[in-house]
Amino acid sequence: MESEYWNPLLETLPREKLKQLQLRKFQRIFTWAYDHSKFHRLLYDSAGITPRDIQSLSDVKHVPKVEKSMMRNIQNKDPFPYGDALCVPLEEVSAFRQTSGTTGQPVYQPDTWQDWEWWSECWSYVLWSQGYRPRDRVFIPFGYNIFVAFWAGHYAAEKLGCEVVPGGVLDTQARILKIQELKATAMMATPTYVLRMAEVAKHKMGIHPSSLSIDKITCAGEPGAGISATKKRIEETFDAKVYDHSGATEIGAWSYECSHQPFGMHVNEAMFLVEIEDLETGEIIEEPGKQGKMVITALDRIAQPCIRFDSKDVIEWDKEPCTCGRTFRVIRGGVIGRADDITKVKGVLLSPGAIEEVVRSFDGLGDEYEVIVDRPGDVDHILLKVELLTGTSRSEIEPRLRDQLRLKTNLGYEIEFFEYNSLPRYKLKARRFKCKVALSQP
Ligand SMILES: [Zn+2]
Q1: d(CA 67, CA 39)
Q2: Residue 105 C-alpha to ligand 1 middle, in angstroms?
Q3: pLDDT at 438
Q4: Residue 440: per-residue pLDDT
Q5: Under a CB-based contact definition with an 8 Å cutoff, are residues 284 and 298 in contact?
Q6: Model-level pTM?
Q7: CA of 266 to the centre of ligand 1 (A)
Q8: Which of 7, 221, 302, 346 has minimal Cβ neighbours within 10 Å of its Cβ?
């Protein structure tokens, strides 16, 4: 009988054994980086820590974190263009990618062929757990380029034996027609782009997305599939299951929502070590239900290792194990937000995801919205821009929207209503949250 798991041994390993595996792998990658990269050697020597000091998982927290800005600072130095965090001879690098640069100058990411195989192995856990099988025809509506995005998802789908259709430089209408023509059964895209495709199909082409044969969609690149109102919107529009995944150029494909949809994502703990750090105190949080930012180690990536990387993703452990039987822990609600985006408005912590949750739960509002946080005088001010769908009455929606926003975020908003299709549309990742208030981050 076909297994529910991509790797039945690792995905159901008892927790104690899993921790032993993580410790051994951490020791191995830490030693590797210490021995092969000047950048890492200097960082660890300055902190007075060596691989021999890691005797248990609780020693890991003493290893200095790596910030994105540190990686940015070594770029363009020797060996060009990666700098001295590179742990292999340049000849062994077989792939270049770079971060999208949404928070500054992009960071270059080298991978060896072994790293690249590791990428697709990590993605194989994701796709198998979401029901991808060899009979699937997978359409990838992604502009294959210098960003890693869905590249590894593409190769993992091939590795599983699926048939993969690269959507490449086709425009949105051509992609929809190709999905229709080939009866594709699955696709991978950012939630923003999936909603965009639905909009174009319905309003420009007269094709209802539910008439397409897509039965599962893997969303990544943004938190949308972890926000239940957004997920529900996509699932109903396409009559398909929507699954969340989170990965990053510097980290790898570290998490996945399985087909049991536990309202969260499993961390692939055989391949990654995830720690959650308290936003205020910096202490490591072990208990479920408490938010903090993720510090993550990719346990097997060798060219430019990712060891205790300060990802700034805000997450929390779930209380319950998932019903699927995997022993990998679940982070509740997926990636809740970015530590950079979580801001204090009038003394209240505000996460953009909470606003999206409310806006997308209103049938009369369009998918797009925009939030602008400003402090014109001494008082914080939030402007929310939404689109009213035709046939919907503003006077009916506005009071309910205000109530829900107040209930979910404890804040008041100025709300501006726009006609459908007048706010900006995004192709890959959206920039709907604009904060003009200086943030004080720990
Ligand atoms: Zn599960």
Answers
A1: 13
A2: 36
A3: 53
A4: 43
A5: no
A6: 0.88
A7: 7
A8: 346
- Segments of the chain scoring below 50 in pLDDT: 439-442
- Contact (CB, 8 A) for 10 and 122: no
Contact 320, 304 (CB under 8 A): no
Amino acid identity for residue 257 in this structure: E
Give distance in angstroms: CA of 318 to centre of ligand 1.
12
* Beta carbons within 10 angstroms of residue 53's beta carbon: 14
Q: How far is the CA of 259 from the centre of ligand 1 (A)?
A: 7
**Per-residue confidence (pLDDT) for residue 434, from 0 to 100:** 84
**Secondary structure element (H or E) that encloses residue 200, with its range:** helix 191-205
Which pLDDT value is given to residue 223?
A: 79
CA distance 316 to 351: 14
Give the tens place of pLDDT for each residue, 53-110. 999 999 999 999 999 999 999 998 899 999 999 999 999 999 999 998 666 788 999 9
| Nearest residue to 16 (alpha-carbon basis) of 267, 371, 327 | 327
Listed residue (222, 203, 196) closest to 141, CA to CA:
196
Q: What token pair was written down for 377?
A: 């005088």
- Element spanning 132, H or E: none
**Token pair of 63 as six digits:** 């290893």
Three-state DSSP class for residue 81: coil
SS3 156: helix
Q: What is the torsional sign of CA 108, 113, 118, 121?
A: positive
